[in-house]
DNA sequence: CTATACTGTTACCTTGTGGTTACCATGCTA
DNA sequence: TAGCATGGTAACCACAAGGTAACAGTATAG
């Protein structure tokens, strides 16, 4: 992941860059508005960046102008950042197209989280779960096994996502019951049927099973061993 | 736009609801975690909401548990909100799946902006959408399939753009109903008719269908596989 | 003002879901 | 060994959800 940091305070910038690097985020750095605009010109409106952190108060002008000028081609999401707690500033930033806002002083871990969220939102970084030949795309709600696309019923999808989230940790029967039938009286057979059906859909023919039962502990999503 | 507010402070809740209503945002309200869970059960994991504002400290438990329990089926984005400025709280919330975080006391206009952002209302509408032989030009409002130009009714155009924005992620029936018939009591048949008509217009003869139904999950714009 | 198209409504059909029952396999315990 | 608990499978079927066509009232355009 590559982001652009526009910030005039050299010390803060250095700290931020160090922290983000440690999180696995690469950072390009511009200390002034002028430098940021140069980069914009070179990179076709920040095309290459997953996100931009923009300090509001820069020595050579207000950062809002950057958003407003370049907004047309802006592909990268912008996180605004300023010392001012003034509400009008915030609203102006959002109005100009910022997607998030953080006030100084901020904690670096929080900044990192927000940057990752921003970058993920736009790149539609679909959360995907893979296990052997099983492939689950959570946002698009697609399940594939090898090159075969699998259609799951609502209940089966719910169960699969629950298992995938916890995998390879087993999920107890009680948890599953509560999760899928939150209110109604639950019959143990419903649970058994659901599991059988999901198993059947996930491994046709003689593909290896991916749902393992641990007696008394529940059910886990892992490769057969 | 419809959101869910989970907040135990009745005064603050009333103020928030008033303000959001004035912004054109409808608000459902839950004062306790228990009530929120009831709503979750009724509405198939908050399917009908565009966003959820969740107060961290509730009388009957910590709101994080709601996220963790129900996360599997969570369609709506969550904005966390709390009096604590404790960094750990923030990070825990983000880790649990929150997409934004705001600390009390907050300014209502800022909350409104963040909610709108979350709900995706500010989605950047791509100029052109393509899928197989289907070609949609949003700004010119033209739809083509191969070399045949297609004319859509207003409703059908609305639906197509909604689907295209989210593609290939499926859009739930609840979302569609709210988007196309925002106020009126909606009849399920209207939805069925609209879908049939759009399908019919988009694929005459024996062109492959581009609108896939995922049982219980909604409808998605993707190539038939 | 007339013709056309849009949209809400009804009726009917198809499909798949999911609760249910019945039966079998395994492993533990008395 | 019988008895029981846990877990797996298959088949049945009521019923809800989805799909289609036809009709009518109303809006819209020419």
From TrEMBL, chains A, B:
PROSITE patterns: OMPR_PHOB (PS51755), RESPONSE_REGULATORY (PS50110). The modification 4-aspartylphosphate is found at residue 55. It comes from the Bacteria. Transmembrane segments: none annotated. One of its GO terms (molecular function) is phosphorelay response regulator activity. GO terms for cellular component: cytosol; protein-DNA complex. Residues 126-223 bind DNA. Pfam families: Response_reg, Trans_reg_C. Keywords: DNA-binding, Phosphoprotein, Transcription, Transcription regulation, Two-component regulatory system. InterPro entries: CheY-like_superfamily, OmpR/PhoB-type_DNA-bd, Sig_transdc_resp-reg_C-effctor, Sig_transdc_resp-reg_receiver, WalR-like, WH-like_DNA-bd_sf. The keyword Glycosyltransferase does not apply. Residues 126-223 form the OmpR/PhoB-type domain. GO terms for biological process: regulation of DNA-templated transcription. Residues 2-119 form the Response regulatory domain. The keyword Heme does not apply. This is Transcriptional regulator. It comes from Pseudoalteromonas rubra.
């Amino acid at each position: 992941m590559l982001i652009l940091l526009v910030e005039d305070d050299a010390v803060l910038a250095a700290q931020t860059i160090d922290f983000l690097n440690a999180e696995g985020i690469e950072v390009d750095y511009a200390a002034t508005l002028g430098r940021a605009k140069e980069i914009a010109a070179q990179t076709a409106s920040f095309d290459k960046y997953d996100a931009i952190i923009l300090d509001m108060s820069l020595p050579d002008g207000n950062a809002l102008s950057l958003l407003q000028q370049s907004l047309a081609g802006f592909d990268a999401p912008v996180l605004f950042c300023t010392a001012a707690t003034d509400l009008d500033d915030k609203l102006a930033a959002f109005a100009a197209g910022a997607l998030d806002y953080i006030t100084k002083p901020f904690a670096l871990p929080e900044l990192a989280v927000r940057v990752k969220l921003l970058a993920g939102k736009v790149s539609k970084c679909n959360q995907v779960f893979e296990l052997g030949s099983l492939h689950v795309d959570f946002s698009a709600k697609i399940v594939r096994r090898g090159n075969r696309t699998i259609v799951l019923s609502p209940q089966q999808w719910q169960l699969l996502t629950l298992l995938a989230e916890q995998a390879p940790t087993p999920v107890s029967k009680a948890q599953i019951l509560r999760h899928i039938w939150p209110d109604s009286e639950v019959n143990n057979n419903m649970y058994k049927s659901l599991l059988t059906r999901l198993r059947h859909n996930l491994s046709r023919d003689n593909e290896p099973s991916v749902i393992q039962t641990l007696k008394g502990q529940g059910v886990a999503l892992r490769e057969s061993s």
